[in-house]
Amino acid sequence: MLSKSAEFWGGVRAQLPILLGTSPFGVIYGILALEAELPIPIILAMSMIVFAGSAQFIAAELFKTLTPGVIIVMTTFVVNLRHMLYSASLAPYVKHLSKPWKYLLAFLLTDEAYAVTIVRYEKSTPASARHSNQHWYFLGSGLTLWVSWQMSTIVGIVVGAEIPASWSLDFALPLTFIALVIPVLRDRPAILAALTAGIVAVAANSLPYNLGLMAAVLAGIAAGVISEQWFAVAHDEAMPGETEPTP
After folding, report:
1. Is the pTM of this model over 0.85?
2. pLDDT, tens digit, for every residue of 120-140?
3. What is the tally of structural domains in the chain?
């Protein structure tokens, strides 16, 4: 069993390469939020408290177009529904922790933190996680991203407007998510969910208020759930059932 310090710094090291993709996204968020005429304290508070890059990005765009508040809330809610799936996946490994630990780790749970943390947890079992310090790995990963996100937001506010558009920093985010998603597409339901969401996102791109993104998220979730149930039923039907022994 590794020490708390070893686990924490292991999580930090695992997160560092991902910052190459998330940091430009934080800079872009700072720029976009300024263009939406959000007050600087609000911009910083969103990064510190909301701490959900995609939701912040979308919310800033919607604020800029004077979108009704209910649409902003609905859109960011649907976009962040994936965190429920992350939480369900991690729950067996952290259910033994105290409530303060659970609250802290839930706050730090992001796509990037989940991607490296679940790999760490899957090297063991939920039972062994109870007697380990692996939650410190989770903490190191999530906290590293949180600190980096605040710094990149500040950079976007202070000097972001001076960055040439030719640098195409906004392209770093899709590349980051592609790198995070591909390794976890390990079965057919996951692949079908990703393909469905991608197709719907492209087809519905012209919908107003980023509703195409909401449609893609819902379609991807539905495809994943339905296909998982279908494959489970097909597997059960393919396996001969056990019969009771005759007396």
Report:
1. no
2. 998 888 888 888 899 999 999
3. 2
User: Domain range spanning residue 66?
Assistant: 4-163
Q: Which residues of 51-77 are buried (b: 16+ CB within 10 A; e: fewer)?
A: bbbbbbbbbbbbbeeebeeebbeebbe
Which of the two residues, 25 and 165, has the higher pLDDT score? 25
Torsion of CA 101, 80, 182, 208, to 10 degrees: -160
Pick the last residue of a domain from 128, 163, 198: 163
- Of residues 183 and 77, more confidence is placed in 77
Closest of 176, 203, 186 to residue 24, by C-alpha: 176
Helix (H, G, I), strand (E, B) or coil at 229: helix
The closest alpha carbon to 198, from 212, 184, 180, belongs to 212
Q: Which residues of 199-227 are buried (b: 16+ CB within 10 A; e: fewer)?
A: ebbeebeeeebbebbbbbbebbbebbeeb
Greatest mean pLDDT among 77-91, 105-119, 222-236: 105-119
Calpha distance 106→138 (Å, rounded): 10
Domain membership flag for residue 199: yes
Q: Is residue 169 part of a domain?
A: no
